[in-house]
Structure to design on (502 residues):
């Protein structure tokens, strides 16, 4: 069944989506536990397909709701997203703009809003809630269209649960695009803050409250975005990350302006963390230690940002660790004889000074450079695909191989499709791993499910891996075939989902 003798497991949601992580400086999903620490029985496979109902009159265009999120401004299709606005732990379908209109629902009139189709146990409710949104004076006439937007020529805004109450709020960071006009965050430099429109369970409040940010020497624009990946000499580097596991993100500054070095380098390398008290970020930073051995020699930087290191919760304590996956030559650490990642544990006030080896399978038959990054594909065109995700719902990240090197599609496709899963355990990924079976019908693709998600092309349908029913175990969600047209559209539109089950 397998091709080897043994089996070789990125807007910010509430607690159910757990800890966010950094891949370099970009946010990636991590994992964590519920408040009581108990989780569901670990899943072992995807069941056969079951329908997930979708609203018939979503009015988003000739292809229907063919993907879980659509932010393209093309007039022939609307805009929508899936996110938990109602706070019940299940994603809702949120339509922000209809096909044929350039503006948000309710504009140019006096009542801008979104249509929210609440998630249920078997699909999205047929009738929407009207979700009022504020009319931001700084935004253009199109209004709040792209839900996951964080930057545009008309300002910077996002949906995020800043206060940790389990409800996504609307957060406006600056009035206009920082790159086009050079406008800083609100109130900068004397009274820097973001504007938060709280989620009241039925919409966003019409009036904003200030969310204080530190008056940090971070550059000429302040904290104009939730994350800055720029290596500009004139701008610092920062992100929002829940380092302490309290379900509220901190503002984490990695370096100041006019330097490429981590704070305190050499001798006392650290990040500056502004803790979140539920009403804003602390004005005074707390020192968060960074291991000296993780720095790239005299440069004082964390090696190559992005594919080389990330922050993720590997040990399941709801706090991210600092994880290095490859060496300066692009190969996984220890590959091929002793493959591993280097993990610096989260000790509450920083990362441990000494790293630990986190064992991984060898990656033979998957990538010429081993598992040199947490997910994606190998450096060579013929390499396979893998991901680091909590597939079984036990609150630990697993290493999941979805395609072998040199293969045109997923393992076993089409008669006996499966993924190879290496469950997360203390100290590494379990090797040998196990077979994770997938459904055999309704594939609509020549390559099978050769990755966790795909936007569709001639060889693939449109699918994703996400938790739709709120049980903390992701489902395989098929939304369209290779024609990128919603299943059953227009008469009986639906998605098909394969539940993760023990």
């Amino acid at each position: 069944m397998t091709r080897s003798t043994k089996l070789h497991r990125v807007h910010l949601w509430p607690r159910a989506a757990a800890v966010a992580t950094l891949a370099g400086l970009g946010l990636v999903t991590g994992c964590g536990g519920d408040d009581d620490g108990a989780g569901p029985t670990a899943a072992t496979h995807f069941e056969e397909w079951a329908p997930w109902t979708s609203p018939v009159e979503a009015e988003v265009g000739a292809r229907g709701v063919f993907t879980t999120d659509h932010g393209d401004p093309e007039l022939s299709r609307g805009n929508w997203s899936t996110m938990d606005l109602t706070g019940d732990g299940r994603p809702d379908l949120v339509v922000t703009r209809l096909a044929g209109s350039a503006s948000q629902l309710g504009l140019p009139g006096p009542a801008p809003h979104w249509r929210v189709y609440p998630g249920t146990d078997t699909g999205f409710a047929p009738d929407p809630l009207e979700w009022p949104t504020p009319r931001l004076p700084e935004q253009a006439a199109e209004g709040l269209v792209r839900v996951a937007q964080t930057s545009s020529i008309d300002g910077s805004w996002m949906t995020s649960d800043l206060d940790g109450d389990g409800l996504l709020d609307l957060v406006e960071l600056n009035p206009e695009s920082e790159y086009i006009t050079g406008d800083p965050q609100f109130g900068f430099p004397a009274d820097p803050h973001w504007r938060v429109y709280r989620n009241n369970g039925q919409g966003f409040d019409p009036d904003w409250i200030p969310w204080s940010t530190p008056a940090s020497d971070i550059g000429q624009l302040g904290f104009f975005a939730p994350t800055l990946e720029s290596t500009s000499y004139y701008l610092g580097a920062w992100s929002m990350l829940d380092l302490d596991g309290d379900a509220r993100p901190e503002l984490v500054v990695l370096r100041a302006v006019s330097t490429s070095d981590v704070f305190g380098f050499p001798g006392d390398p650290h990040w500056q963390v502004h803790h979140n008290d539920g009403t804003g970020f602390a004005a005074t930073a707390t020192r968060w230690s960074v291991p000296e051995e993780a720095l790239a020699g005299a440069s004082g930087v964390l090696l190559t940002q992005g594919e080389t290191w990330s922050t993720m919760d590997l040990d399941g304590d709801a706090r991210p660790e600092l994880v290095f996956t490859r060496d300066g030559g692009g190969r996984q650490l220890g590959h091929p004889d002793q493959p591993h990642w280097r993990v610096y544990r989260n000790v509450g006030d920083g990362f441990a000074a000494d790293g630990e080896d986190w064992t991984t399978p060898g990656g033979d038959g998957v990538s010429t450079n081993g598992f040199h990054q947490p997910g994606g594909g190998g450096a060579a065109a013929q390499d396979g695909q893998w991901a680091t995700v909590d597939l079984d719902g036990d609150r630990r990240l697993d290493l999941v191989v979805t395609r072998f090197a040199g293969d045109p599609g997923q393992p076993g496709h089409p008669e006996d499709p499966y993924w190879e899963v290496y469950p997360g355990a203390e100290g590494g990924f379990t090797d040998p791993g196990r077979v994770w079976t997938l459904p055999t019908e309704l594939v609509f693709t020549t390559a099978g499910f050769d990755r966790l998600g795909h936007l569709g092309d001639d060889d693939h349908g449109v699918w994703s891996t996400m938790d739709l029913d709120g049980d903390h175990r992701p489902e395989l969600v098929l939304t369209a075939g290779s024609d990128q047209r919603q299943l059953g559209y227009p008469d009986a539109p639906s998605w098909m989902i394969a539940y993760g089950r023990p």
Observations:
- Confidence is low (pLDDT under 50) at residues 1-38, 150-154, 303-307.
